[in-house]
Amino acid sequence: MPTNAEPAAEAARRRTFAIISHPDAGKTTLTEKFLLYGGALSSEAGAVKARGGRRAATSDWMELEQQRGISITSAVMQFPYRGHVVNLLDTPGHRDFSEDTYRVLAAADAAVMVLDAAKGIEPQTLKLFDVCRQRELPLLSFINKWDRPGRGALELIDEIEQLLGITPTPVTWPVGIAGDFRGVVDRRDGVYTRFTRTSHGSAIAPEEDVEPERASREEGEAWAAAADDLALLDAVGADLDPKSFLAAESTPVFFGSALTNFGVRKLLDAVVDLVPPPAPRTDANGNQRALDAPFSGFVFKVQANMDKAHRDRIAFVRVCSGVFERGMIVTNGRTGKPFSTKYAHQVFGQERETLDEAYPGDVIGLVNATEVRVGDTLYLDPPVEFPPIPTFAPEHFRVARVRDTSKFKQFRRGIAQLDEEGVVQVLRDREVGEQAPILAAVGPMQFEVATWRLENEFGAPVELTTTSYTVARRTDAVSAERLRSMSGVRIVERADGDLLALFESQYWLARLEQEHPDLRLERLVAEGRPG
Ligand code: G4P
């Protein structure tokens, strides 16, 4: 990386994006293939290997993740491609972690949505898409697994339009039905690219551009069917439109098979060609921080214990302006305190490399960032504060108690840590104190992670008791006093100082609202939506 390069020029080379999908649609496979095409992974005897010869763990590093076979935590991967620097932010696949995904998407400039050709839009795709829409994130779509039987291409395109309400603009079109994948036609120039399979997709798939006449001769009916579809698409004018893509109103669609590498290059090329480079970020006052302004960035994720040997904690920071240099002393806007960045890393799955410089769009991992929280802005003067990352409305509430009271100190420390990381939200009842905080989550699996970590990482086995609360509203001190005297309501405080009123049912809440219209009961967010 060049030293002291102009931040704006370096930013222009950056593409920072995330991949979202329903579990099993192929996000992990596609991530590995991007790394393969980016030269960050090399193939050896059919197995994808990471740098240093270790088997690529992608982001499934935590024991619990391995036991459950799902990806819970997020990692960041950076690789060069066609003279650009690609930053791929990994997102957890499970729906219970949509809050975590939301934070990651706050640091991305675009997203790639992976669909399984046999399944189309699945529930989790819808939920993640909703998050992208709220952030107005440009979205590329990849219809995966075309190498095996699935649904019709036109039917899938139609489903994107109907269920997501976004205009699909197919950029590539498959020749051969799902399960008989020959290649793709690029609708931008009409060129047909034919693929050849390699064993296990461990190497880049050989591609050959074939003239239409020869294609027609050699592919027969598959070619004729694709030509019919293409004529239809041309007639409706579903062409790539960069302007509406950037406005998150249309989504360029690509067909492929991550497993066999078919269509992966076209998609990666589109990431470089279509995803917008980092732009000046708007601060909390509505002003833009120029890319060439002194360093600034915001923390979108805090994660503990990535390295079991060190038991440390990493704050992930998206750089918004200027040059980040390791060792720099920056200011944390929330505390006003200086913060040393001596231990800055580039994080690649579970591996780390010391990082010396970073530019807008890059993500840095700050190790031992004990005083840093999600949403914090770090900067060099002049000061800046970026808007907070909204939290989801919790829908599940459990009371936590330490099983062995001699471990209370560890329990308290663990609970505070999980709260700061955003693993769960911690709610305190001033009458009960620290003994039995309420843990609040968007999805119940967050409790599993919290319990596991309290026991294994902090040495504080806990017992969680189910509560009957299902809905939370933000309130103020005056209303809280009145609500305390009512039945079926509980007043708790969140770490950010907000007072929340918990209700057992929507019905009860609605009744109270009707009877006492002057009570302040603010909706945190619509169900499952950040706000
Ligand atoms: P996820 O991260 O979205 O959850 O999906 P992942 O990549 O783990 O893929 C889920 C399963 O789908 C894996 O199979 C993977 O090999 C398979 N898969 C991914 N892309 C394609 C594709 O383009 N074509 C086909 N046919 N399969 C694909 P698995 O049996 O669960 O795991 P594995 O034993 O193959 O690793």
What can you tell me about this protein's structure?
An eight-stranded antiparallel beta sheet has the order 20-19-25-16-17-24-21-22. It has an eight-stranded antiparallel beta sheet with strand order 29-26-28-27-31-32-30-33. A seven-stranded mixed beta sheet has the order 4-5-1-6-7-13-8, sandwiched between helices. It is α+β, with helices and mostly antiparallel strands and 531 residues long. The protein is 27% helix and 29% strand. The longest helix has 16 residues, at 221-236. It folds into three domains: 14-70 and 95-274, P-loop containing nucleotide triphosphate hydrolases (Rossmann fold), CATH 3.40.50.300; 281-379, 3-Layer(aba) Sandwich (Rossmann fold), CATH 3.40.50; 396-515, 2-Layer Sandwich (Alpha-Beta Plaits), CATH 3.30.70.3280. The model is unreliable at 42-62, 68-74 and 526-531 (pLDDT under 50). A hairpin with a 2-residue loop joins strand 2 and strand 3. The chain contains 14 helices and 33 strands. The structure holds guanosine-5',3'-tetraphosphate. Guanosine-5',3'-tetraphosphate (G4P) is lined by residues 21, 23-29, 93, 144-145, 147-148, 257-259.
Number of helices: 14
The CATH class name of the largest domain reads: Alpha Beta
Radius of gyration: 25 Å
Helix content: 25-40%
- Number of domain modules: 3
Q: What is the approximate shape? A: globular
